[in-house]
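Q: Got a minute? One more chain.
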Amino acid sequence: MDISGIFHKEENLPLSVEQCSSFHRCSYAMLQPSEEPDKENLLFATAQIDDLIKLVKRPEQIKNCIANDFAFYGSGWQSWGFGGEIECGKYQKEYIPIIPQWKQYITFPGKPSSLVPKEKLLKGQFIIYLRWGTTYMVIASTGNASPAYNEVRPRPAEEFKEDSRNKVLPPVQFFVDRNTRTLYCTAYSDGKKWRAGERIAEITIFVAYNYFALKNGIAALFGSSESPRMQQLEFLNCAYDDRIRRIYTAGWESWYNHYANIDSKLIAADLENLSKTDNLINLHCIQRNRPVVFQVDDGWEKACGQWEVDENRFPEGMTTLASSIEEKGFIPGLWLAPFIVDWRSSIAKNHRDWILRDKKGKPIPAGFHLLWGAPFGKDQPSKPYSYFCLDLSNDEVVDYLARVMDTVVNKWGFRYLKLDFLFAGMIDGVFKNGGAAYQWYDRAIRMITAIKENRNSQPVAYLGCGLPLESSFNQFPLSRIGPDTREAWDTNYLRRAHFSARAGAYANLQSTIGHAFWNKSVYLNDADVVFMRYENISLTDTEKELIALTDYMFSSQLMLSDDPVKFNSASEGFFTNHIENLFKILRETEWAVLNMTDETYCVYSKNLRFVGFINLSDKPVPLHDGQIHDELGLNGVSDSTAYEPLLLHATKTKNGYLMEKHSLSLWEFQRASI
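A: Always. Here it is, folded:
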């Protein structure tokens, strides 16, 4: 369906991917200049699903797709949101805002388009697909994936003040009406004043006939681990086999054990003991002389937004700390949240005009945090415990952030920077210099990642977290792709409130599995941390094993947060060796996954050496003999009777198994049995 005032062009791309249809691209542009800036998300395209099904090109599957409902894959707009499938006939559950500020984390920013129906709709951003069996119809916003935009060359910060902001395109949100089988496409362009002929979006559609074709199709659009933006991270590579062009990074971080309660003595003890105990990072990387990141997390700074060292906690300063990490042979890592600020910090007090405000002139809260905002009074201009976002259109803010990054990299010596809460840079408000949030965000992230090498010609890496997924992949190839994990399975009251960005193993695993087909193309997926410890944790061994193996199979970074000082060689050593031995068996294996429900999954390796089953649900799940092969369509190419258990968390039944809750089981192909 044509949208008034919008021009579109269709073409087939010169791409050929095995087991994929042709790649059909639709480009959208403004016919006439806009008289006023956009006041809401811009509806730029609609389509009937049954018309798009014609791209399938296989008559028998076309009939199946038209006759049946589909599973829907949708991702949250930023990395903490849910990314995964919704079963046939179901919809995403709306967040019950028990903490209103948290809506910023999971709600697509800007004002929703008034032209999109208000009925119950499926929602997804950036990349979605509809799935019938093992047939995937992929609909992706690819306008920001063009080679002209995807640059990695270092640039001085001053170039970003007048960057070519017309080159970047706004992020896209898709809506799907199951009942009418209609697709709606909108762009977050609130505040944008369009020129005639200016591009709005590019949407690419293709059909993949199995999971590996899905992954390869995405790689054809966004690049692979050999692309320049990912190869800049080669210095972090700790993969087992140098001959395989896979980038896999690893390290230790202070957060998921110490949290913000850190100081120089505690960090020094962890640094000293990381290579002295048989913890997972020592076994997996240090003893193999592989690169290891040692990351100091939140708690080192004077205040959120005031990125100066707290001398009470780190009296020797950050230069000394980074040097001590480097001397131990590790890559110094540091956590920052550059786009947010505590109203009580000196930065906020001295620069009230730096904080983004709404139409009434009130500061816009970016989120809720007990440590980053006062409960009430003159130090809290919004809801209790709110923190705030900076106005990235303000050149003084950009200059300030440039100075912070130069200090952290070139003066202090940190070379792996975890930049967190980046979504705050995309919150809509009244910008000092007008325009749209996505343009100012693009300028800002190009600036804060501009230093590719420090003054000693050593490479620098950036990990993005809590970041807008579509607007960030070029500058943050290594990024989190799900909510925080933690040392517990779930938080029940947040689960009942349908808060998809909650911390916990359950929500984290859903997104790790859901975003797996992005790995090594859109992003090098960071799935957060794994746990081996027995203190300060409520996870069972089976749950810890599930987290570790899922992360290893479906992501590109392995981070540990256990306390190496308190390493218990008897209990933790035994479990760590168990996990490391499984890693050795599974190393350099490429995996596919297929949802049975939104909590249960079949998995298999590309070489068909392994098949498996993941159960995230809170109860045992029956699995009959041969069911994995049936679900994955492997009958005829692999003998289901030739597999023996490698890792089994199940009770044998008459016709199969009863799979344990919160578990991963694997079967290995036995050549001797056939």
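A: The first strand starts at residue 6 and ends at 12.
Q: Perfect, thanks.
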